[in-house]
Structure formats: C-alpha cells, structure tokens
Amino acid sequence: MSRVSFYGLAALVLVFLAADAWAMSAPSPCDTPQAHGPQVDASAVFSVELAPYGHVCFVARKVPVPVYAEADYLQFELLRGPQAPAVKLPWPERYLWNGACRIRAVSFPLLDKGPQRSILILGRCNTAGDELDQALIYRGSPQGFKLDTPLSVDATGFDTIAKAEAWVRERIRQQPSGRA
Q1: pLDDT tens, the chain, 180 aa long
Q2: What is the chain's alpha carbon radius of gyration, rounded to the nearest angstrom?
Q3: Which residue in 46, 89, 103, 111 has the most C-beta neighbors within 10 A?
Q4: d(CA 174, CA 107)
Q5: How does strand 54-63 pair with strand 101-107?
Q6: pTM
Q7: Is-contact 68 100, C-beta < 8 A?
C-alpha cells in the first residue's frame, strides 16, 4: 500500500470516528425534562428516528380529562428537543382508547408510499371488565400524523404488533389507491 493511500485511508477512518463520536454525544430528546415526571408512562419513553422530524422521543403522558373523571387519557407525543414544541398525536375516541389501556408495543412502519413512517400502537384495554387488544394506527404524511379511526377499529383483537402490522399492510394493499 502506498504512503498516500495509507494516509488517505487513515484520514477517512478518523472522519468516521469523529462523526460517530459526535452522534453519540448529541443530546437525546429523551434526556429532556418533558420526557420524565409523574404523568409520563416510563415504560413508553424511547428514542426513534422518524422522518420528517429526525431524532425524536416517543412519550405517552397521562392527561386528566375533567368530563371523564373515571380514567385519564394517554396523550402520545413526539419530543424533538428542549427548544422545539412537541408533536402531539390526535386523541382517539374514548370508545377506542382510554386511560385504562396499557401500551404493549409500538412500531413505526412504512405503510404508505413515500418516506413518512406511520405509528402503530398496540394496547391492552379494560373495557367493561373485559381485556381487549386494541391497535391505534396513525397514518404518516408530510403534513404530520392522522389517526385512522376506521382502520384502528377494524384492527381490534390482534395480540401482537406483527399481526396487527401485517393485517394493516394487507388492508392498505387491497385498496385501489393504496389508502385504506
């Protein structure tokens, strides 16, 4: 190996190491005070790379709703850092999801054409004394996330995130426009 190619290779390795060290030292949105506290479900706080927002922290926060005193809502948020406002996902209808639901799994699949991922949340809900598996499907677009209530209602009963995701993909694929 010539001296020039050796030094070029060494410089390239140093650039990659420096970039990797910078990425590791960059603060996570999950390291902010908004990602912690008594109202935050600590089991549902994690980092994810999510276009178009970049590196975000997914958080489930209990929010009291005075009209429905029996149970709080879970507000799902994407924290982008201490200076950026949180992206709050739309609340589902109370019959679909309430504060008595526990998050079992979350995935960020590519459901539609384009780079925007969707958010699929699988929960176990206590409804009238019965335990029920319930999925929430937030369809991603360049404008943000929209709760697909009809698809979420139809996805009731799947006991794993993989089953729910496969079913949703198949439903979308069957639609002529690719939208359910």
Answers
A1: 555 454 444 443 433 443 444 345 567 888 888 888 778 888 889 899 887 788 999 999 888 777 766 667 788 999 988 778 889 999 887 667 777 788 999 999 998 777 889 999 999 987 777 888 989 999 988 888 999 999 998 988 898 999 999 999 898 888 776 454
A2: 20
A3: 111
A4: 21
A5: unpaired
A6: 0.77
A7: no
